[in-house]
Amino acid sequence: MITISRTFTVAADVEAVLAYLMDFGNTNAWDSATRHTVRTDDGPLAVGASWHNTSKILGVTSELTYTLQVVERDRLVFAGRSEGATSTDTITVRPVGGGSEVTYHVELEMHGLAKLATPVMRMEFEKLGDETAAGLTDALNRLTSAA
User: Gene3D superfamilies given for it (predicted)?
Assistant: First the structure.
């Protein structure tokens, strides 16, 4: 299993951060591996909402279906599944100063033959973790300038 976690602070308040991150479709704006993410259901953003995500990592395109599993006052959990991998993305947000501290934690398990690539994928995900934290910090800080 690959586990990556990044913690960073942003100027936006907890409510704005959680509202933005609750829509997994926003990965289009801040996840460098994401090629596109599209909502696959209708209705309000709530537990059970789902998205189809297409990403490209190390030249390989992967497609996962993500479902919003947990919505709490300070935490969101998304579960992504495909034949080749299972991903659990947990986002925790707490107030700090005039903004928020965000912890983005990913647990990725490769399945089948893809499991053989776990050591290489671990190194790539460490790099992607840094890129994602930077992209997400920029996107969340823009929420305060848009308000």
Answer: 3.30.530.20
- How far apart are alpha carbons 139 and 62 in whole angstroms? 24
- Among candidates 4, 57, 63, 53, which has minimal Cα distance to 28? 53
DSSP codes, 32-43: TTEEEEEE-S-S
Please, what sign has the CA dihedral across residues 22, 65, 42, 26? positive
For 109, the token pair is 């398990």
- Residue 72 makes CB contacts below 8 A (sequence gap 6+) with none
Spatial contact of 10 and 93, defined as CB atoms under 8 Å apart: no
* Structural domains in the chain, sorted by start: 2-146 (3.30.530.20)
This prediction has a pTM of: 0.90
